[in-house]
Structures are given as C-alpha cells and as structure tokens.
Amino acid sequence: MTVISANALGLLVLVALARASPSCHDPRAVPSGVAEWAAAHSSAAAAVARMSQQDKVSMVSGIGWDKGPCVGNTAAISSIGYPQLCLQDGPLGIRFGTGSTAFTPGIQAASTWDVELIRQRGAYLGAEAKGCGIHVLLGPVAGALGKIPQGGRNWEGFGVDPYLSGIAMSQTIEGIQGAGVQACAKHYIGNEQELNRETMSSDINDRTMHELYLWPFADAVHANVASVMCSYNKLNGTWACESDKAQNSLLKKELGFQGYVVSDWNAQHTTSGAANGGMDMTMPGSDYNGNNVLWGPQLNNAVNANQVSKTRLDDMAKRILAAWYLLGQNNGYPSINIRANVQGNHKDNVRAVARDGIVLLKNDGGILPLKKPAKLALVGSAAVVNPQGINACTDKGCNTGALGMGWGSGSVNYPYFVAPYDALKTRAQADGTTLTLQSSDSTNNVAGTVSGADAAIVVITADSGEGYITVEGNAGDRNNLEPWHNGNALVQAVAAANKNTIVVVHSVGPIILETILATPGVRAVVWAGLPSQENGNALVDVLYGLTSPSGKLVYTIAKKAEDYGTAVVRGNDAFPEGLFVDYRHFDAANIEPRYEFGFGLSYTNFTYASLKITSTATSGPATGTTIPGGPADLWETVATVTAVVTNSGGVEGAEVAQLYLTLPSAAPSAPPKQLRGFAKLKLAPGASGTATFNLRRRDLSYWDTARQQWVVPQGRFGVSVGASSRDVRLTGSLDV
Ligand SMILES: *[C@@H]1O[C@H](CO)[C@@H](O)[C@H](O)[C@H]1NC(C)=O
Ligand SMILES: *[C@@H]1O[C@H](CO)[C@@H](O)[C@H](O)[C@H]1NC(C)=O
Hints:
One of its GO terms (molecular function) is beta-glucosidase activity. The protein is α/β, with parallel strands linked by helices.
C-alpha cells in the first residue's frame, strides 16, 4: 500500500515571505506577513518623508495610455531611487510577449484541483514577469467569480466556488510573489458580467458579499497580495473604485490589506471621490485618447484645495512603496523588456495543467482509453490550428481553429500551438493507425470521413471573453450555453455514421449537453476545457491513457440554462440569488444537474473508508487581532478530518477527495452543502492514501450580519466526504 503523493489542503498554506523568517515557521503561532509588512511600511514611510508632493502625485498617477513600455506605467522618482513602474497583463502570462509562455487559463488550473501544479504555475508566471522586468503582474482573478454561467470572463478565474477560488488565489499569489513580482488580485468586486460592466451596479447584500465574493479576496490578502484592482462596475450605486465600504471598510480595515488598490483601466470617474473612497493608484492615467486625466495635476489641485488630505496622499504613496519593498524590488530588478525569452521549461506546467484539468464526463463501455485503433477519424474546425495563424486574431478575438483560451486583455500570444490533429497525427504514426480528418464543421459529407473508423473524435467549442470585442455575435458574455458552430448537429452527423463517437469539448464554461448525450453512438464525452498551447498533447495524454483523467468540474453542467437561476442582467444586478449560486442553488432548489460540481470520471475506481473527525472548535465569533486576511483566529485550524482513499481499479490514477460541510441550523438559511476541503491523491492500483482536510475557523463560520463578525454556529455540523458534491461516500458529524 503506497501513497505516491498526497496533498493535504486547507490551512497549511505557508507564505513564502513568512517562511524566510525564522520566527515565522508556524503560521498558526505567528501571523504570517505581519512583520514583513511592518518592515516594508517603515521603509516606505522613510522614503515618503523625502518625497515632494509632486513626487507623491506622480507615484500614484499613471503616465497615460500608450506612453510607456507596459500597459500601465508610472514615472520614475529619482530622489528615492524608484523606477518607472511597469504593470502588465495578465492572469495567464505576459500580454504582448513574444518569448513568453501562454499558460493555461485559471479555470483549467482550478479544474486540476492540484495545489502543487497551481502553485508552480504561479511561480512560473512570476519568473517570466520578472524576466521581462514587469513589477506588477495583473492577476490572478477572483472576480468574476462566475455566478452567471454565460459571464464572459469567468474562464480567467478559478471557478464558482469561493473556497476553491480562495485556495487557488493564495497559491498563485504566493507563486508569483515568491518570484519577486507583485501580484494583483482582481477585479474587486462584483464584476460578474461584461454587458454594461462600466455602468451597472452590483448590489450585493452583506452576508453574500462576505461568504461568496469577498472570500477569495480574503485569501489573497492573507497571502500578502501586493495590490488589488478595483473593478468597472458600481456597488450600491457607487463606483467600485470610489466605494468607501468596499475599499476602506472591507478591504483595508476588515481584511487588514496593507498594499494598494489600483484602478482597472479607466475605471476611475472622479478625482476626490476615488482618493477618499480608498483607491491608491490610477491606471493608465488618461483615457485611451490621452484625455480625461483625473489625477496627476488634478490630484495636486485637490490636495491643495484640501478636498483630499495630505495624509491620504501619503497613505497612497506609502502603500505603493511598501508593496515594492515587500517584494524586494528595491534591490536590483531586471530592466523592462516585454519581449524577452523567458519560457524556460514552463511548457511542462502548461501540459500538466491542461492534461490534469481534463474532466472525463462519460465513457460508456470503457471506449477510452484508445488502444492502437487501426482506423481513427477526427472531425471539427477546432481539431486544427487556426488557418490564419496561431495569433492571427487580436487579443484572441475569434473562435477559429482549435481553442486554447478565451478573448480579451486576459489573453496572450501563443509561442507555439499544438492542436488536436497535430498531436493525434504523431501518435497515429507511432501506432500505425490510419487517421482521417475533416477540418470543418460541415455535416454534409462527414459520414465519408468517419464511417468504418474504429472510433470518431469530434471536437466542439464554446468561447467567451471581454466585452470590447464581439465574436460571432457574442459581446463578451455568451449569448447562450449551446456549443458554437452548430456543434450539436455536427456530433449528431458523426454519431449517425460511427457508433463509437468520442466528443471532445473545449469550452470557457458549461454548455448544455442534452442533445449530445441523447444521441446514440456518443460513447464518451471528454471535457477538455481551455488547454492553451498544449491543447493537443494534453488531449492525447488522456485519450490514450498515458494519464488517467483526474480533473473535476469547477462548475455545474445543467440540463438547461434556466436551471442555474442566474443569467446576464440587463440593468443593475440586485444579486437576488444571494448565496445560492451554482451547486448551492441546485442543492437548495432540488434541481438535478446533468453533471454536478466536483464531478469527474477516471480510468480507475476509488473507494473511500475510515472517516475520522477531530475538533477543538468552539462556537462564537472570531475575535483575534487583525492580520492580513482578517482576525488571526479565523485562519487557525480547529478541526481535522481524514479519510482513506483506495485505488480499487486496474491502473494508476488520481482522485480529488472533496469535503462538504452542512452548517447547523443556528446558522440561518445556509446552503445545504459547501466545499470546505479537498485533497488530490495520486495512487497506484491497489494503493491507499489518506486525504487530510484541515478546517480553519473560517471554514466553520458564517457571516453574522447583526454582529458583523464571522461566527461558528453552535450545534451539529454535517461532514460529507466524497468524489463530487453529490457523490458522497462517507458522512459524519462534528459537534460544536
Ligand atoms: C450595499 O447595500 C447593502 C444593503 O444596505 C449593504 O448591506 C452592503 O454592505 C452595501 N455594500 C456596499 C459595498 O456598499
Ligand atoms: C469501476 O467500478 C464499476 C462498477 O462500480 C465497474 O463497472 C468498472 O468496471 C470499474 N472500473 C475499473 C477500471 O475497475
């Protein structure tokens, strides 16, 4: 019985910065990051004391759109040896880079549920940004969280569950910042759709704000994120970048955020409102025509007129400088070269994430993995590289050819691209397989390509992105949850001619699969997500069983779009669904999903046994002193759950064991189950491993709106451990 490797997730997320300090080896005993921020702020205060008002204004004001080497730039301040600061997109690599890696989108990283791969992805993102001289990398993304399945930018983030998103945020930030680069948690907050994002108001009630949308940002702050980007939308009618409540009360006071808030590009609307509302840096410093400069000289005037206090200006500069000192960027930093070749071996991480993020949804009769078929057919325009070129469309604003990422400012250039056909051709040659291809979505003559083949693989897609580009009529958000390019009809035509049809889906988010699943001859559905540059290689790894699929869905796939209970909103969004998004809604409303959150098949089987629960948790509010992320005791482990998982099948594989908590009734109107732990175990056939779930005080808490505190309710907590949010294998309870 051998455990090949086991990742226990939960509290024990050490901060790279804290780890370097000998006094901080136990994150439960010594609040992580407190001493480091204090030192950084004292260096910053000393520097600010030497700066003129003009220096301070220039430190907080971008120099204007398209005026420097990066998407955001501030002027150098020679009196304190401060450089021209470079802020660059984005969450999956170096935007406009020509020698950098196109990492997998956040949604794919989350689908692996593998903290080591997620952290390595962050470390490589940081290494590449540093190699390019970028001071601030504009990611990772926790907003959009993804409450609207059609939301255009959901794919940039880590899925719709705040706990999973929070773990992925902290791992990514620690990876990026461990490399010496400032991370930027975005978009803060409530930017859940592209339609009207620059005019609409997101009106989120206090409890929902805390338990869903703020949650992953708390993880980001706890990981000592250097910067946070305020979003385009309004909150309760006030611009997010001017929201005293969101920026001053929640982020800086309640979460103890020590870094700075930077505006999304042109998300600032007034000079004093933004300054007094808690924004610390404006980007890019002008509108896209070089006009409408709201800080710079305007801020100087506002300070002189006492509309913005000198203390507030000092605080902005101190926060920006503290982040710079915190990351050690004052000690020699590479000069800016966005086009540097910084790829190293990072493609290995792309392939691993692309592969391990693939979710096997259906595999009737074990048609997969493929075993040296004599004849194989491949169908779909998404099976081949975009005929116009891998980077032909500006900011990936097209869905032509194989899909690797969505579109918008969160996209990057591919250094190379391996499409399904490229990788399958190589494999077919090695196996002596005859591979036939139809690289279009035409249903007319597809029977000729696929009939007689041992299996037919049909590749379909769904794409989305940022609203400044419209692709095939989709203005960022998707118009519907159907496959693009007539995917249902294409699958039907293929399956009519070949009873061993394997459907591969490359998608930004859920699509409705009912037509496809009702089609006789569809034997397998491989949910391949957004694999970036390693698209084909990752697919072949799984199709041929070089690796057993181990990804799990990070959102629900519904039977029909209306089942989600959320959709793109026309006017302001009152967030009427509250806490009940995705599986929280399906569970509460008793709606059967097609494939539930957390679902994913394997080429092997896993059994669960020996649930053990130990707890020292006490009821009542968290009352600790505020550290980055909130009250210190909120982050302490108060209960540990273990379960033994055994690979009972015939091949090596990895299982993502998941823990869901049901709060006692003392927590009013809570969702039936909430993810509060997961562990990915890689197991040889016959081997067992222990999944360990460390539950922190926050994992047992709900936000008590009357007390304005996180409270552990008294009573019996239900503990469900299993293979998905609905495939519960072990249950137990925990009394507090
Ligand atoms: C929005 O309004 C609700 C209801 O009054 C309040 O609970 C919440 O804190 C407000 N949020 C912000 C960001 O202003
Ligand atoms: C997994 O278990 C199912 C029944 O629960 C069985 O049909 C299948 O053959 C098993 N697969 C493997 C790979 O052991």
